[in-house]
Amino acid sequence: MSTYGVLPSVDEVLRQPGVAELLERHPRPVVVAAVRECLAEYRARITGGLPGPASRESLRGAVVAAVRERVAAMVRSNLRPVINATGVVLHTNLGRAVLGAAAAEAVVRMGGYCNLELNLETGKRGSRYAAVEELLKTLTGAEAALVVNNNAAAVLLALSTLARGREVIVSRGQLIEIGGSFRMPDVMAGSGARLVEVGTTNKTYPEDYRRAVGERTALLLWVHTSNYRIVGFTREVRVEELVALGREYGLPVMCDLGSGSLVDLRPWGLPHEPTVQEVVAAGADVVTFSGDKLLGGPQAGIIVGRAEYVGRMKGNPLTRAVRIDKLTLAALEATLREYRDHREEVHTRLPVLRMLTVPASELARRAGAFAARLGEILRGRAEVHTQPGFSRVGGGALPTAELPTTLVAVAPLNVTVEELQVRLRKGDPPVVARVREGWLLLDLRTVPEDREPLLEQALGRALA
Ligand SMILES: *Cc1c(COP(=O)(O)O)cnc(C)c1O
Predict the structure, then answer these.
(1) Domain span at residue 301?
(2) With 50 as the cut, is the pLDDT of residue 1 above it?
C-alpha cells in the first residue's frame, strides 16, 4: 500500500453505504468536504511513508469511519452544553453562572423583535435600561442604575466618567487581580484615572487616605477582595468609614463589590459576603458588581448609586462601547424578578443559589443512589464508592467557603483514570470531572438531578 492509486475516489467513497446514509441527513457540501479532507489526510499519510491498512477493503473501511467521524464533528455546534461534575458552582471555563428557567425562557422569547428601545406608551424612543432600572432600585435601595457588558466594563466606565485625568485613592490591600487578567491597576490606567495607593498589603487606616487626599483627588475606591482573604494581623477601612471620609472632603466613594450578592447566605452556613443593599445603605455613592457571580444571572456589569453619578455615566460615549445586548437584558430582568417576586424561595428557584444551599444530606443521598446504579453499570470495569469531600463556589467568590459534599469516586480497572477523564471530556455530551490520586471524582452538587441518567450513560460509554 504505497501509491495514490489504491485510495478510493471521492465518488467511490460517497457510494459506500456508511457515507451514502449521511447524505440523507446532512447537506451534500458538508459530506463531500469531509470526504475530500479525509482522503487528503490518507494521501499525506501514504506519501509520508506511514504504514497503510493491509488491504483495499480495510482502507476503504477506515476512510468511511473517518468520514463519519468528521461529518459528526462538522455538524455539531462549537458551543455545546457540558455536564459539570467538578462541584465548582461558578466555573469560569464552563460559563460561570447557570441561568434559571425564567431567564433562559426570556432569552428565547426576546430573540425576535422586542421593545428594547421603544416606549410602548408614548411610541417614542425609550431607554434600554428601563427594563431593569426600577427593579435594581427596588432591590438595592439605590437612586439609579445602569447595566453594561460585564463588571470589568462597569468599573472602567465608572472610573473613566468620574476620575479621568484625576486621582483615585485605593488601599494596597485591595489591588486585586481577577482571573482572566482583570487587574485593578491596569483597569485604572485604561480609564485614564491615576492610581494613588495607600496603606500596606495587610493594614490600611483612615489616616492613610486622609494623607493622600489632595486637589487632584476625584474618588475614594473600595474594592471587595472577592477572590482572596487577608487573614491574621489586618486592618481594612470599612465602607462606612470611607463614606465618612468622603463626606468630610466632598469626594464620592465607589465600591467594586465583584460578586454582588443580593441575599445573605449565612443562614446556609456560608461566610458573610457584603450584599449590595448593605453597601448602598452604608452610603456608597457608586456600587459595581457582576450579573453572573453570586447573583446567578447572565454575564453583565451592574452599576447602582446616586442619580447624579449614574446620569453622568449614561452620557459617557464609552457606555455605547460596553452596552448590554437584548438577550442579556432579558435574562437579567427575569433573574431580578425572581429576587423581587419570590424573595422567600429565590434560593430554590435560581440554580446558583440552589447549588450553594442544597443540604449536605441531600447530596449524600443522591451520591449514594448514583454510586449504587453506577456500580451496577460498570461492574467488572470499574470500582465505585462514595467519599466525603468539598465543593467550591468558584468564579472568584467566597474563596474561603467550604461546602461539604459527598463525592462519587470511580477507579477504572482497564484504563488509566486520566484516559477516562479524557474520554468523558470528548464524549457527547462532554463531562468535566476532577481526578485525584487514581480516582475520578464526581460531585453531583453541580449536576442537575434530571441529568444524572445522562452522566451514568456517559460513564457507561466511556468504559464500554
Ligand atoms: C469578578 C470581579 C470583577 C470582574 O467582573 P467581570 O464580571 O468578570 O467582568 C471586578 N472586580 C471584582 C472585585 C470582581 O470580583
Answers:
(1) 101-347
(2) no
Residues 261 and 371 in one domain: no
Phi, psi (degrees; rounded to nearest 5) at 286: -140, 135
Measured by CA distance, the residue closest to atom 7 of ligand 1 is: 151
Claim to verify: residue 233 and residue 143 sit in the same structural domain: yes
- Residue nearest to ligand 1 atom 12, measured at CA: 258
CA 405 – CA 388 distance, rounded (Å): 6
Are the C-beta atoms of residues 307 and 143 closer than 8 Å to each other? yes
Last residue within a domain, chosen from 311, 330, 347:
347
Q: How far is the CA of 447 from the centre of ligand 1 (A)?
A: 25
Q: Please state the rounded mean pLDDT for residues 458-464.
A: 97
- Ligand 1 within 6 A of CB of 226: yes
User: If you measure from the C-alpha of residue 253 to the centroid of ligand 1, how many angstroms do you get, rounded to a whole number?
Assistant: 18
Condensed to tens digits (0 to 9), the pLDDT of residues 136-182 reads 999 999 999 999 999 999 999 999 999 999 999 999 988 877 666 67
Query: How far is the centre of ligand 1, averaged over its atoms, from the C-alpha of 183 (Å)?
Result: 10
Helices (H), 118-183: 130-140, 151-163
Strand partners, 409: 385, 441
Ligand 1 contact via 205 beta carbon (within 6 Å): no
